[in-house]
Amino acid sequence: MALHYGSSSAFLLLLLFISSRCAAKTSLILPVTKDSSTLQYTTHVYQRTPLVPVKLTVDLGGNSLLLDCEEGYVSSSYKSVNCKSAHCVLAKPTSCGDGCYTHTLWYCNKKACFTSQYNLLNQTSLLSYTFAEAAEDVLSIPIRSGSTGGETAVSVPRFVFNCVPTWFIGNAVARGVKGMAGLGRSYIALPTQLAQAFSFPRKFALCLSSSTKEASGVIVFGDYRVDRSKLSLIYTPILTNPRSSKYIGQRESSEYFIGVKSIRVNGKKVPLNTTLLSFDDEGNGGTRISTVNPYTILESSIYEAVKEAFVRELPASVTGVTPPPGAPFGVCFRGIHSSSREVPSIDLVFPRKNVYWRIHGANSMVQVGKDVTCLGFVDGRNLPLLPASSVVIGGHQIEDNLLEFDLQRSRVGFSSSLSLHQTTCAHFHSMSSRV
């Protein structure tokens, strides 16, 4: 997937590196791995006293670090957030706890701060919702030195997170995962808390790898440097959804929405109901970016329009495969590979003149067999729970792209697809952290 500023723009090989000459330029890097069975993106941190490794699923729009505090959570530094504290206000509480509901350390604290949470990975029943206890504990992140290759760690002694029961994390997560790494726009999500703890700029860069063989993707918190002679990021504003349909009692969503105004296939505008691309009075509609959805989800009428336009633009030699063998996809083909230049391009067009995000074959098609590929988009009506957003840009479509989320300037920056330049996110896995 690539975002273009005009058809004449050409982007070269990305050179991304952390400044080692200016102490004010600081960053932290978390390696990211794609799980082969769930297609989730996972990372890990260290937490508690004594420190233990905690494996997390990356949730781009998540409003906090969300952890299973019921099964095996032992820490001498755990502390419940009080209802009247500043941390509770930042966590957007829904109620005060005044009793003990389990035999574990959480939910047993007087005047504890409670928030409401929604699990995007568990959408089959009301078990998607729960109340969580806001808490504080030590968070530690290993850092790598570029000069010595050694590894140390930095810690935040009172990192705020949300405690949930084991059943809420559920069985839909990758093996060994104990929580969600929320990267959303809330004040207690990882980007803001790490920025405050280490005086970072309030932004982060995300590069997800399509490889499932190793930790070859990265999240870079704070400042970093892009060689502008090699790559120019194109920016579009982050839109604020005034109503969150997910979090009970939270009126403003922590997700990342962008202003797509139309869709093109091979440069031809797709006829669709464009009112679906804006928010309605209940916060439904619009376009958001997600890392917990493996593929882009489209509202049913938008999906049908894009699918028909895509099929029309395929070469005559390409044949359809019926029934489509690649669930959850609705249309598959024989006779064309995802890397072929004949794969029709798909553009997400933004309001600013000549600015669009181009999805090339590597990001629009999914190989499901030796000679069968599928359009890597999902019809929203085929999901257990219909998404509130009309377009949810999923993981496959943003893989091997560099995305910068600048919360201070409220904008998202996009690179061209790295696969077009014979490179991947794995090239940036060896970058060093500086604090």
TrEMBL record:
Its main location: secreted. PROSITE patterns: PEPTIDASE_A1 (PS51767). The keyword Transferase does not apply. Residues 41-415 form the Peptidase A1 domain. CDD domains: xylanase_inhibitor_I_like. Keywords: Secreted, Signal. One of its GO terms (cellular component) is extracellular region. It comes from the Eukaryota. It holds the Pfam family TAXi_N. It is found in: Secreted, Extracellular space. Gene3D superfamilies: Acid Proteases. Residues 1-24 form the signal peptide. InterPro entries: Aspartic_peptidase_A1, PEPTIDASE_A1, Peptidase_aspartic_dom_sf, TAXi_C, TAXi_N, Xylanase_inhibitor_I-like. The keyword Secreted applies. Belongs to the peptidase A1 family. This is Peptidase A1 domain-containing protein.
